[in-house]
Predict the 3D structure of the following.
Amino acid sequence: MSATPIDPGLKILDKNALLERRDLARAAGRRVVHCHGCFDIVHPGHVRHLRQAKALGEILLVSVTGDSGVNKGVGRPLIPEELRAENLAALDFVDWVHIEHRPTATQLLAEVRPDIYVKGREYEFNNDPRFLAERDAVERHGGRVVFSSGDVVFSSTALINAMEQSVDPFHQRLSQLAASPELAGQELFSLLSRMRGKRLVVVGESILDTYVLCDRPDIAGESPIMTLRPLENRHYDGGAAIIARHAAALGARPTLVTALDDSEQSHQFRRRLVAEGVEVRALTTRTPTPEKQRFLVGAQKVMKLDLVEPYVLDASEQAALIGMATEAARAGGGCDAAVIADFGLGLMTPAALHRMCNALREHAAILSGDVSGRRSTLTAMRSMDLLCPSESEVRDAFRLHAEGLPLVAWRLLQDTDTRRAIVTMGAEGLIAFDRLHDVQETADDAWLHRLKAEHVPALTPFAIDPLGCGDSLLTAATLSLAAGGSLLASAFLGACAASCQAQRIGNVPISATDVRQTVVRVHNAHLTYATPEVIHAPGRATLRAS
């Protein structure tokens, strides 16, 4: 009859339990064999090494270097210490497992005083001071150091490097970005801190986004059409309003320049934004706030209904709107940044949009813009520091659907006299394009030498709701530039903000804390360990990983 297998979790011992069991084994005359290492990936070489070690005694102790003590480069250890300990404890010939948080095993060896300490054959002629200290600790207490045969040699580091070459290019690109000095965690955190207090003027249409949560759809009896039964309405601020709210949540001091009617709904809207730190300057119109209704079954959108009456502003009203925006930007000696958002609802004609750019350019240190909707006018924006269109928007604007994206981006930057662009590509992430003005080229292919591009993969595996991702990206990237960040750092922080937005239903302001948490998540991401939760056996703790 076979012996009952031991729960691997019972093999993992803290130091007190380990030393207590060691004393019992010594009293019983049982030899303790000790192996120590990182064991990031338990490969065949490890298994043979440990099995040979167990054959030298009655009890096999394997100690694992804690996460803080692993010094094998960026992203190592690949597997968290608790799971590495569990992997070893699952081997039936391993009796005890201990996580050693000190840099080397020297102190642990002096405390445990194993009968035999087993190292790989590569250590036999090794004069590394750390290994020599370990050897001295063992032999000083009467133990022996034995070198395993090494008949099968593997390297965790070599295996991981090989895996990194075979993973998808998006993950490989994220690894490259994480290693970039300008995207180091402290650099990005400093950039987020410098956003606080920046004066930002936001110009554009305010929109009411309504989510109608519906019961399971059915088929109508009178004809084969879908029937929806609304259960709940949820209202969110959209358009230029959410850009201003994002800015306030990131610590900036935004002023929203928009158009509102004289309804109670508009008064509530104004009070709500003011309470969040947004100054509202509104041109009074008779046009009600545009509302876009989206009908959802679960998290799936099944229909959209635009309750939109386009704005029709005469020449004096257009001039008043431009004057209002100019005064907001000029107040206090100029603003740190201004955002022009054209949602194609008629608030600004192409000519008025052009004049708005010229007016704000004089008073804004950073001027950025974006468009949304088929009636928006991307090409009317001029002399911008940053444009943030989607790939489809920029291709539609120039009717360039088959050409490479760098050529399309160059056309955008050249025709609008804009310095930089961040072009979003949905699940493929974004590409940040920088126009290099210090290169002198006159050939038709000048864009090949005067355009720098950086790809940032999407930081969310799937979007729960993509609505508003572009607005959060535009806000974070603009404030980053205003705070002195590079284009790459601004695009990365914008991608972090968009990632936060994509995981939420509806337009919700993204805070600096949200972005910081995403930065930490990306920097702590491991190659193969991506499961968010590991559930242990009943009665044991739950391990959560970022």
User: Anything to note?
Assistant: Residues 219 and 226 are 5 Å apart (CA to CA).
